Amino acid sequence: MPKNTHLANFEKGQIIGMHNTGVTLTSIAEEINRDHSTVSKFLIRVRERRSIEVALRSGRPSIFTNEDEQNLINAKWKKKLNSMGMLHRREKGPLAFMRERNGGGAINSQRYVEVLNENLIPFRHELIANYGNDIIFQDDNALIHQSKYTRDWMESENI
Known about the structure:
By secondary structure, the protein is mainly α.
């Protein structure tokens, strides 16, 4: 007799059909090559639930609460955003937000230069007009700040 296998719908139909015609459980079990207890338990379940479908099982309990699950979803789909601020000892410059075109957080040298063009250059002109040419541009040693593309752009802008 098969072990640990579910009853096929055909077998379920055979059991119900033979049971309805008065065939004994032992005879049904022998006919379909299943254990007596399998046939008996199936008929009890059919009687109680009025269905031949397998009941949904709860499965392993989740270790996540609904809030944990939502946080995972948010973390997975959260768009990354970088920011860059510009300061002078007497003035605050614009705060620039940078997001890579495809929604990721890492930006490349070309995008960094675009952001500088849009934000730094106008602020720099304003500072030069107000305080003269004695301005120091400072950034960290991130790869995009030190790339050849960025250095060439800075040189062309006299930064």
